[in-house]
Amino acid sequence: MEPLMITAAMVGAEVTREQQPHLPITPKEIGVAAAECAAAGASIIHLHVRTADGRPTQDKDIFAEAIAEIRSRTDAIVQVSTGGAVGMSAEERLQPVFLRPEMATLTCGTVNFSDDVFMNSPSDLRRFAETLQRHGVRPEFEIFDAGMIANALHLAKLGLVTPPYHFDFVLGVPGALPATPKNLQFLVDSLPEGATYSVAGMGRHQLTLGTLSIVMGGHVRVGFEDNIYYRKGVLADSNAQLVARMKRLADELERPVATPDEARKMLGIVRS
C-alpha cells in the first residue's frame, strides 16, 4: 500500500471553545497545533481560521498569518478550506486561494448540513475550479454524497481539474451520506482509476472509518473539526492526540505514514 497520508483538520467552523477547551483559535495557536500534529504523523494541515473572538472567517489576512505560523514550524502541506461556514458567499470563501497555498478543498455540490443547507451551484463549482487552476492550487474534492463524485469528474471533463485526483469522503454529517462501511465501499468503487481518497468520519465514526480506510488502502482525516472526543464522553487533549492514534494503528498494521514530501508526490504537488 501507499504510505498513509494523515490530514489534521484542527479548527473547522462550528466547534467552540465551550465545547472543546483545547480548540486552537489564534494564528499562533494554530501554528503550534499544526507543528504538534506534524510531529505526531500528519502530512497535511486542513486549515480554517477564526476571528479573535472565535467566529469563523475566510479573511485572507488571517489565513496569511496562520499559514506563516504553520510554515515557520513545519513542512506539512497547508490545505485551505474554501467551504468556510454555511451562509458565506463564494467571494468570501475563495479569499484564501489568492494566497496560492499548495492545496485547497473543493466541495462538489450542495448538501443538507444539519438544519442548514451548504450551497454549491454548478456555476460555483466551475468558478472555484477555475480559480484554483489559475492560481496553481491542487484541489481536494470534498464528497458529502455519492453524486458529488460525478460532479467532480464533470469538472475534469471540462478541463478545469487535472489528475492525479484526490477525494475526501466526509461521512456522517446529518442530512448527508451516513458513515457506514457499506457507503464507504460504494464511494471507493465509484472512483476513477488512480484516484486517492481520505475519509473524514464525523464524531464517533472518525475512529472506525479511519481504521477501515487504513486497511482498505485509503487515507484519513482526523481533528476537532470532525470530532472533539478521544473516546465516548472523554474530550481529546489535543488534535495531535487524534493524529497519534491513527499513526499507532497504521504502525500496528505495518503501513508506513507519509512524510509531507511523499504526500506531495502522491497528490501531484510541485513546489515552486
Kindly report the CATH topology.
TIM Barrel
Number of structurally distinct domains: 1
CATH structural class: Alpha Beta
* Largest sheet data: 8 strands, parallel, barrel
- Examine the secondary-structure arrangement and name the CATH architecture: Alpha-Beta Barrel
Question: How many E-type strands?
Answer: 14
Structure description:
With 272 residues, this protein is α/β, with parallel strands linked by helices. The protein contains nine helices and 14 strands. The protein has helices at residues 27-40, 60-71, 90-94, 122-134, 147-157, 181-189, 205-216, 239-252, 260-267, and strands at 6-9, 44-47, 49-50, 56-57, 77-80, 103-107, 111-113, 116-118, 138-143, 166-171, 196-201, 219-222, 229-231, 234-235. The chain has an eight-stranded parallel barrel, surrounded by eight helices. The chain is globular, with a radius of gyration of 17 Å.
Set down the secondary structure blueprint.
Layout: E1 6-9, H1 27-40, E2 44-47, E3 49-50, E4 56-57, H2 60-71, E5 77-80, H3 90-94, E6 103-107, E7 111-113, E8 116-118, H4 122-134, E9 138-143, H5 147-157, E10 166-171, H6 181-189, E11 196-201, H7 205-216, E12 219-222, E13 229-231, E14 234-235, H8 239-252, H9 260-267
Helix pairs in contact: 1-2, 1-8
In short:
The protein is of the alpha/beta class. It has helices at 27-40, 60-71, 90-94, 122-134, 147-157, 181-189, 205-216, 239-252, 260-267; strands at residues 6-9, 44-47, 49-50, 56-57, 77-80, 103-107, 111-113, 116-118, 138-143, 166-171, 196-201, 219-222, 229-231, 234-235. It has one domain (6-267): Aldolase class I (TIM Barrel), CATH 3.20.20.
